[in-house]
Write a structure and sequence with these properties.
Keywords: Coiled coil, Cytoplasm, Cytoskeleton, TPR repeat. The chain is mainly alpha-helical. Among the domains are: 33 residues; 68 residues; 44 residues, no CATH class. It contains nine helices and no strands. Helix 3 runs parallel beside helix 4. The termini are far apart.
């Protein structure tokens, strides 16, 4: 026991130990040890260790306070920190303090950083432009706008390649080129229809349709009468049947 107490006493007397409220008496362990064993010169140890235990508990409370402060000031630096650690080290506290100091120094150096009113005005302007009613809808609408922008960019790139336009050609040039292409296609279709009908005059097409409407109903009635009269059902049998009758 005396050996352990002597080791603890040497730790308390080391230069790295913090200032003690309760100082032990001078002299070696052997000089302070009485023969009857009633006093061993370590009466200060329980008080000192108790004081250190209180300081360690206070260290945990200090860590929690710094943790809350860090969450407010630099939340992006506290993703790896945990509040339920069993033991808190001074290095943990120093890490939080350094992160806060670094952020403070960066803010002082970067005087052009937007202020809170400026950021609020930017968010409000975005809500008005894209019809967002609440702050919760800002991020989804941003993602939607980004997706639509990507689709439009890909479509424009494809149109530039298909139409053999320069990549720097503005949107108006692309629209005009597509319009001219559509007009040319429509002209070709009209010309093909005219060639198919054997005329290039729309009035001639109308006359042909009117002649068809005048001729086809009587012709159809005549054919039906012949089929009934000759007692046949196929048009191809009309001519052979008439020849036989002749």
């Amino acid at each position: 026991v005396l050996k352990v107490l002597s080791h603890i006493d040497s730790i308390l007397r080391s230069p790295r130990a913090p200032p003690l409220i309760y100082r032990c008496s001078k002299g070696s362990v052997q000089n302070n040890t009485k023969e009857n064993g009633q006093e061993c010169g370590f009466e200060h140890l329980p008080l000192t260790i108790e004081m250190w235990a209180d300081q360690l508990m206070a260290l945990k409370d200090l860590y929690k306070s710094l943790r809350k402060l860090s969450l407010e000031l630099v939340p992006w630096h506290t993703a790896d920190l945990q509040d339920n650690r069993e033991s808190i080290r001074v290095e943990d506290l120093q890490f939080i303090v350094d992160a806060i100091l670094e952020e403070t120094e960066n803010k002082e150096k970067n005087s052009q950083a937007p202020s809170s009113p400026t950021l609020f005005a930017m968010v409000s302007h975005f809500q008005k432009l894209f019809d967002v009613n609440s702050l919760n809808g800002v991020y989804p609408r941003m993602n939607e706008v980004y997706t639509r922008l990507g689709e439009m960019t890909n479509a424009m790139r494809s149109l530039h390649e298909v139409l053999e336009l320069d990549s720097s050609a503005p949107l108006t040039v692309v629209v005009d080129t597509v319009g001219k292409l559509c007009d040319r296609i429509n002209e070709n279709v009209t010309e093909q229809v005219q060639q198919l009908l054997g005329t290039r005059d729309i009035h001639s097409i109308i006359n042909k349709l009117e002649e068809h409407e005048c001729f086809f109903p009587p012709f159809q009635a005549l054919i039906q009468d012949l089929l009934c009269l000759l007692e046949i059902s196929n048009l191809d049998d009309i001519l052979p049947t008439v020849r036989n009758l002749k």
